[in-house]
Design goal:
Layout lengths: L4 H15 L13 E5 L5 E6 L8 H9 L7 E4 L13 H8 L3 E4 L11 H8 L3 E4 L3 H7 L1 H9 L3 E9 L3 E5 L9 E2 L8 H12 L3 E5 H7 L16 E5 L10 H4 L9 E5 L4 H9 L3 E4 L10 H10 L4 E4 L3 H10 L4 E7 L9 E3 H5 L10 E8 L2 E7 L6
Helix pairs in contact: 3-4
Length: about 375
């Protein structure tokens, strides 16, 4: 049967859809989906990788296809793995099953093994075609690519603001549960906020500063309702260990603080540190850098050591601007509501925090626009996760 480019894209699309089933479940490994099409052009087997199931997507697809795999085509979003890890090499199983053709979106971004799988398949006489739907496939596994190459998680800075870059309004302490609230309620729409929950679901950790904890008393949980292998790690930068013991993120019965809250500090009361640790909170103390905030770069390195492959940064203007200026941010996701706040008392300007004298401007590339009801969002990269 002659290859059909339109059919190739259709089956690759199905493989990508299967791969997305691994979001929240596969990290720190990649999301992979596989489709086996028999010699008559019908789907004979499918598979999606999740860390807990151990078996790779192509093995699951082979098991479902059985003898129909012989002479068939494997469609997969990522190069089949050719090395011994938690499981034997998938390339050997594909060769033994008699797969005649492999259509893949992209090579493995792991520099230690990239291309090896394709080489083994070609050496066995299997026709290999690479590159279909590559942009979507690369974006799906960008966190894995950054993490496997550097040991550091992909860091995405998320900010929601008005058209004039205001993220909220400070109100006097004691006026309510916090001292900062969005002007007139939420700045962005329900659809935009639902998308933030999707971003949390796709992330291994969410990071904020103590200022946000004191002002908003947030839960910082994944409320997408979708399954995840590990609880969303909630990371707090708290240089002086001021986090209140009654904070909601330490009290929430649905998301216990034990093993899901991590606090980075520079100094702090040893008694309070001991109490936090007694509650299961992990506390890491870094030497003070002389700044009012903790340097995010060693924080991200430490998170990488904990097998955190992606971090969503949700914080106030000052900390967000500092992390941006440090060069630690890989990706931006900026939500804009069609509102002008103006120079009302207490308005918090993200743009002003990002632009002190002498600070270099930041240039985003590979920019995409998104629409959420009346809101828009700009997605852009400050560095390529694959380079």
């Amino acid at each position: 049967m002659m290859p059909d480019p339109s059919a190739d894209n259709r089956f690759l699309r199905r493989a990508l859809d299967l791969a997305r089933e691994g979001l929240g479940l596969a990290s720190p490994n990649p999301c992979v989906g596989a489709v086996i099409v028999d010699a008559q052009g019908s789907i004979a087997g499918t598979g999606a990788y999740t860390f807990g199931r151990v078996k790779h997507a192509e093995i699951l697809a082979l098991e479902e296809a059985g003898g129909a795999a012989r002479g068939g085509t494997l469609y997969i979003n990522l190069e089949p793995h050719a090395h011994q890890g938690r499981t034997p090499p998938c390339t050997e199983a594909l060769i033994a099953a008699g797969i005649a053709r492999v259509v893949a979106s992209m090579p493995d971004p792991n520099p230690r093994v990239s291309g090896r799988g394709f080489e083994q398949l070609r050496a066995a006489g299997i026709d290999v075609l690479v590159g279909g739907l590559q942009e979507e496939a690369r974006q799906l596994n960008e966190a894995f690519a950054k993490y496997i190459r550097t040991g550091i998680p992909l860091a995405t800075l998320k900010v929601a603001m008005t058209l004039d870059a205001k993220i909220g309004v400070r109100i006097p302490s004691g006026s309510g549960p916090g001292n900062k609230v969005p002007a007139g309620g939420w700045i962005t729409s329900e659809a935009a906020r639902a998308h933030v929950q999707e971003q949390r679901h796709q992330s291994d950790a969410v990071l904020t500063g103590i200022g946000t904890v004191l002002a908003d008393d947030p839960l910082l949980t994944d409320r997408s309702g979708k399954p995840r292998r590990r609880p969303l790690l909630r990371v707090i930068l708290d240089s002086k260990l001021r986090i209140p013991l009654q904070s909601r993120l330490l009290q929430d019965p649905e998301q216990p603080a034990e093993q899901s809250v991590l606090v980075f500090c520079s100094v702090g009361d040893e008694g309070k540190k001991a109490e936090l640790e007694r509650r299961g909170v992990r506390v890491f103390q870094f030497p003070s850098s002389g700044e009012s905030h903790i340097d995010s770069r060693p924080v991200l390195r430490r998170l990488g050591e904990l097998e955190i492959a992606s971090v969503l940064i949700e914080c106030g203007a000052t900390l967000g601007a500092a992390i941006l200026a440090s060069g630690a941010v890989d990706k931006l996701f900026l939500y804009y509501a069609p509102k002008i706040m103006g120079e009302i008392a207490g308005a918090i300007s993200f743009a002003r925090a990002c632009a002190p004298p002498g600070r270099n401007r930041v240039l985003a590339t590979n920019v995409h626009l998104h629409r959420f009801e009346e809101d828009v969002a700009i997605e852009g990269y400050l560095r390529d996760p694959y380079e």
